[in-house]
Amino acid sequence: MSKKIGTESYKGVRDFFPQEQFIQDYIFFVWESTLESFGYEKYHASILEPTELYIAKSGEEIVNDQTYNFKDRGDRDVTLRPEMTPTVARMIAGKRRELSFPVRWFSIPNLFRYERPQRGRLREHWQLNADIFGIENIEAEAEMIQIAYKILRNFGLNDSQFEIRINDISHLAQTLKDAGLSEIQIHQYKKLLDKKDKIDNFDEQVRNLFGRPFYPDIKESESVEALLDKVRNRGISNISFSPNLVRGFDYYNGIVFEVFSTDPENNRSIFGGGRYDNLTSIFGEESVPAVGFGMGDVTTRDVLETYGLLPNYEFPAILSICPLNDAFYNYSSELAQDLRDSGISVIVDYSGKKIGDQITKAIKKGVQFIICIGEEEINRKKFTIKIVNKNKEKTVSLNKITKFVEKNISR
RNA sequence: GCGCUCAUAGCUUAGUGGUAAAGCCCCAGUCUGUGGAUCUGGUUACGAGGGUUCAAUUCCCUCUGGGCGCCCCA
Fold first, then answer.
1. What is d(CA A40, CA A34) in angstroms, rounded to the nearest whole number?
2. CA A318 – C1' B52 distance (Å)?
3. CA–CA distances in Å: residue A276 to residues A140, A141, A221, A305
4. ipTM greater than 0.85
């Protein structure tokens, strides 16, 4: 009398069925190969972290309301990591004296946040994180932007399909301070700036906030100018200064950047990061200069989908062997193994269905070649190979199968 | 946490105050060695609870679940 267990996945997380995993693998592959081409080393860490790691810099509200946290059996506060940056900062800080800087690392962790799912934001997502530690000058930012640009180009986007925006958070804060705002007012103003493009009464809200009109003159800082110059000279033109770009986290202390799709359907940034030189100091260590970024799989997939850049699914086996009946199973199995040893991926149909049905099924699965096995083939040692997408057949001898398949395979 | 919206078969969708239809999928048979097929047949659904009514899948309420937006943004 047990209650039926639902087959749906937990709210806001995803099951990756083979066709979706295929896309996921593709996205990860582009990420990894691009990062490795820049010499970044891959690392991993646990999804569990002590809660205190996030309270220090993320703020208690976010930790309490928007993370998964619980107490373990030893009464320790534990959190499912909502972001990777504190983790990597912890790892770097702990090994600070052993590492030779600069250090370039990347990882593709799954991250969790407790909130209502919507387009571009789920409760679990996978995010490419790349960080460079130990470089104080603007070359670190330039390299990050080059990587971002390269990743999107490798996904097949052209320059008009995305734009890179940069700002200088410290310069912004200084400008506001010079204009006479208090720390709290600066914080409030930054929040408004962050959604300036979304709301239509920005000026009115500013007036409500300060009791007077407030138009600070936010100019490009020297480092923004230098950075723009640098990356433009390196061939990246779809980048611009964006005075109202503000990143949510407090640990950024210099240049920040975001990448947006120019398709209005995807209104979330697909890529964001910046400089956070002081984060490692929360571990009581000397600060290590750092620049990093994150890029989520959900938004990436949305963007690729809108631009028609998702890869087509490929079934892993390229050849199916269809035995006429169970008397030919052993022979088929041995043939399959021989072909696998020669580098071809092969499945054998043990369904016991009739040959026509087996062929229909094999084609539907997506194999490219079909060999039927019966009396005739075994006696004559000749095999007829059906090339599915050409709807053609060819009879070859046993030792010619591999060669024939390799010659006619389509990718 | 708030708002809008939706809920019919495994999937995508019809439809009605008198318990429901189609396509695809799946299963079986047909065709009995090369049929991405044909033909035949079959399984399976109104998310849950309550109310109005002679009668609710349909109207109303609550709940649950999904989608989207807000908040927040890692």
1. 9
2. 62
3. 12, 11, 17, 32
4. no
pTM of the model: 0.90
* CB-based contacts of A397, cutoff 8 Å, min separation 6: A381, A382, A383
CA-to-CA dists, residue A163 to A25, A236, A238, A343, angstroms: 25, 10, 5, 43
pLDDT tens track for A187-225 = 888 888 877 777 777 777 787 777 777 777 788 899 999
Within 8 A by CB and 6+ apart from A27, the residues are A297, A300, A301, A304
Burial (0-12, 13-18, 19+ Cβ within 10 Å), A218: middle
CA–C1' A308–B65 (A): 31
Chain A, 374-393: which CBs lie within 7 Å of strand B?
374-377, 384, 386, 388-389, 391, 393
Judge whether residue A401 contacts strand B, using its CB and a 7 Å cut-off.
no
Find and list the nucleotides of strand B having atoms within 7 Å of a protein beta carbon: 1-3, 26, 30-37, 65-74
Can you tell me the distance from the alpha carbon of A122 to that of A326, in angstroms, rounded to the nearest whole number? 48
